[in-house]
Amino acid sequence: MKISFIALGVLLASVAAAFVMSDIHVSYTLHVKTTVVVETPEGEVSGSAVREISNSASSISLGWTMATNAPDIRGEAVVVDLGERGTLFSLISDGTDYEMYQVFPTPKIPETSLEGIKYYKKTLKPGMKGELNPNERPGYPALVTFTDMNNPKSVTLVRGYVFHPETQTSELENHFEELFGEGVSLKAIELEVTKEPVTKKIDAVLPWLSTVKKGSLDGRLSGGGPELSNILHYGNFKKGEKQ
Questions:
Q1: What's CA 232's distance to the chain center, in Å?
Q2: In the chain, is it the N or the C terminus that has fewer CB atoms within a 10 Å radius of its CB?
């Protein structure tokens, strides 16, 4: 008995849909709003960015050891406009998903495993929120500013860890008051699961960003420092090209 191409297509589509909807293949796509709150003598100032974090896994191992699966991250750095004091940026990175894991932990399940992905798919709902704890992994993301917003080479660390190769140790540095004035400090970094779309603000704030898609902020193809402009790159300010 012959099966028409249309019938075969319908059959294959049905099988594919059943596969995706079953526990054989599990995925989630979450929008997470990150809000950075800064304390100033004039009052609190905040800025937010909505990022997309997605992951998927299959229970079909084909005899291979079941491994964790790295998520896809799409979004941009958080921009906090402090007016005449300057502009603060909370960077995005390949490890941004760990911020979500800290605020919304799994019950002792590897976050990027099949079971971890099932947990986040079923558990995280819009409206859930919490604060990052700077003393727990991954802590706060790196915070930077530009002493000249038109010059990517002027990027300056506001708060973050600095590695000292001579001692092979990292030290936390905090330059909020030095760079933004007395009485200015980081108050909190909050995360919230949301239905809001991924934000698209960074290109308007840093119009030169598209010119440094290759290499580091200082224009060199090789990075590694010691200057911060030779360590940071396009991906620290914007990830994912679908936005």
A1: 15
A2: N
